[in-house]
Amino acid sequence: xxxxxxxxxxxxxxxxxxxxxxxxxxxxxxxxxxxxxxxxxxxxxxxxxxxxxxxxxxxxxxxxxxxxxxxxxxxxxxxxxxxxxxxxxxxxxxxxxxxxxxxxxxxxxxxxxxxxxxxxxxxxxxxxxxxxxxxxxxxxxxxxxxxxxxxxxxxxxxxxxxxxxxxxxxxxxxxxxxxxxxxxxxxxxxxxxxxxxxxxxxxxxxxxxxxxxxxxxxxxxxxxxxxxxxxxxxxxxxxxxxxxxxxxxxxxxxxxxxxxxxxxxxxxxxxxxxxxxxxxxxxxxxxxxxxxxxxxxxxxxxxxxxxxxxxxxxxxxxxxxxxxxxxxxxxxxxxxxxxxxxxxxxxxxxxxxxxxxxxxxxxxxxxxxxxxxxxxxxxxxxxxxxxxxxxxxxxxxxxxxxxxxxxxxxxxxxxxxxxxxxxxxxxxxxxxxxxxxxxxxxxxxxxxxxxx
Length: 452
Fold this sequence. Notes:
Residues 118-452 form the GS catalytic domain. InterPro entries: Gln_synt_N_sf, Gln_synth/guanido_kin_cat_dom, Gln_synth_cat_dom, Gln_synth_gly_rich_site. The chain has helices at residues 2-5, 10-16, 42-47, 118-131, 176-181, 183-196, 221-241, 286-306, 360-377, 400-408, 411-417, 419-436, 442-448, and strands spanning 23-29, 35-41, 51-54, 79-84, 90-91, 99-107, 134-148, 200-205, 211-216, 244-247, 263-269, 328-330, 337-339, 349-351. The chain is an alpha+beta fold. It is globular, with a radius of gyration of 22 Å.
């Protein structure tokens, strides 16, 4: 046991110091971003180099049903070989015993990466950058709501009760008093994050009732996607400890802002370490504008991945802190693409389109893929937008069906993400959308039952 634990990341070794490891959770992200896998005794994990799961975990819809994603061979449920990435070994500090989590990568029997495993999709896109001599850097921002426990799907979601005994209030962006209302939950989030070795760049109150934002330090896309994947779980666990729920739905409460996963991008030249978005004199380069153009051109087709559910499209509402178009502007939070204030070395581009409900591996992969296509096509963006972008027209899909149509037709994007991933993803999401269309909503019963 001592042999393999000596090679763990420092945070995992610190967590286990002087303690006996009981269990290891061997996990992998499915398409929605849910952790799938097996929990095994630590003694067994020490002896195994891989384990098996059926590839059908990637064919499931969010409701647990299956589309026709298995392909021409039918629903065989082939076993995948899942191998641990020990660099991801991390504490599970909310468990009753001493447990580690380890993210695994999925391969077929010939050793080839499973093309529709989300982590593999992101690795594929990152490798395209590396092949050009570039190193992509991202920084995700995570927005989420702390809400009252909700056990009845027919009941509206309500803000959680704060420390003062009053429900969380809206319109309190950046209020420290509002943050203090959630103090016990936030304390556990910090404690869990520290035990897992994650560095939080800051926690702020956002505009919605009970809505918080966590910023993460910039870094490698796969590592940051791993952290968001882990963070979703640890935040949920911290909330449950305090009799509330954490939700990453894009729009959980009507008339409140939605929750985004804003993604900041920059690209470093591997040989020189220089930001390719900035020239020798500190000005913006052609690469900067090509990346912008790639986002403007290809994000509509990628929206089905960054806004993966019918609820996602309720977030894109004027004047509710979410974009309605793909204009770009400097330090302009009304545009879908923002260039934050920065010096030449840290020049970056922010994608404000992605929702917090997306799979972090896939959301970051699609965002980088769109920028990559712009760099390859060497296209130019529209002119910089000045003023309030909400005053203009929306130019992104407003419903899931339209977004899926654009995604299904986007061959250039498929080639970057992987055609087999695109096939499986499109089938699964179409099955979810068609299932949703069979549901009659309370709005329909209220307004149509006796009036039409």
